[in-house]
Design a protein that fits this description.
This protein is an all-alpha fold. It has six helices and no strands. Among the domains are: 96 residues; 52 residues, no CATH class. 61% of the residues lie in helices and 0% in strands. α2 packs antiparallel against α5. The longest helix is centred in the first third of the chain and has 49 residues. The protein is rod-shaped.
């Protein structure tokens, strides 16, 4: 029997290394996904700050504050050609929404929708969408980074303990002893020893037993009856 194979555990070293490799790959992919989602959220939040800074720079050059409502996405670009937004109209997409453009609709829902479109800043809704993306992506990224760091600390601690164990004097540590063992030969020896012990016990039992003495038969003399 090979001692190295006899002392090997159930999980091969190659399988353990493969599991560790795929564990790191999965954690790295999840961390990268979380980072991408978090960066997308940051970009959506920062676009609002960039638009506000741009408006502030335009306001320093012009006497009025340039408005950037959501309604610019549904407005006719021809009507905005004479405003300060004319150089930037090519970067604004135009969306068609017939219900919002219907001026004959006097319902309360239509009135609220028109008011929100004309008052809410164009960068607010993307920024609101970016906040949950930033928080969820950041949590996923930090969780995976913490998991990888914990796995590295565990491996480093395990290697450190192995190194400390090997640096101990040989008299203070217990090394595993591997020896060749034939189970069939040992079983035969065990049976022989049991038979020998059984025979010795039987011999001891007979040696301490006292047998009755058997000698020559002596016939007692017969008495002759006396005649009167």
């Amino acid at each position: 029997m090979n001692p190295k194979r006899h002392c090997r555990t159930g999980t091969p070293r190659g399988a353990s290394g493969s599991m560790n490799f795929w564990f790191q790959v999965k954690r790295c992919v999840a961390a990268l996904l979380g980072l991408v989602v978090a960066l997308a959220g940051v970009a959506l939040v920062l676009q609002l700050a960039a638009l506000l800074l741009w408006q502030y720079g335009i306001a320093l050059q012009k006497p009025s504050w340039p408005r950037l409502p959501i309604g610019l996405l549904f407005a006719d670009h021809a009507t905005l050609a004479s405003t300060v937004l004319a150089p930037y109209l090519e970067y604004l997409p135009r969306l068609e929404w017939s219900w919002l453009a219907d001026r004959e609709d006097t319902s309360a829902t239509h009135a609220v929708a028109v008011w929100l479109v004309n008052k809410v800043h164009i960068g607010v809704i993307p920024a609101l969408l970016g906040v949950p993306l930033l928080t969820s992506g950041g949590k996923l990224f930090l969780r995976q980074i913490g998991t990888l760091a914990g796995a590295r600390r565990y491996r480093a601690d395990r290697l450190r303990r192995v190194a400390e164990y090997r640096r101990q004097p040989s008299s203070e540590r217990l090394e595993p002893q591997f020896e060749y063992r034939d189970d069939g030969f040992e079983q035969r020896n065990d049976r022989r020893e049991e038979q020998r012990d059984r025979l010795e016990a039987r011999a001891d039992r007979f040696s301490y037993r006292r047998e009755p003495f058997i000698g020559a038969d002596v016939e007692a003399p017969r008495r002759t009856a006396s005649k009167s």
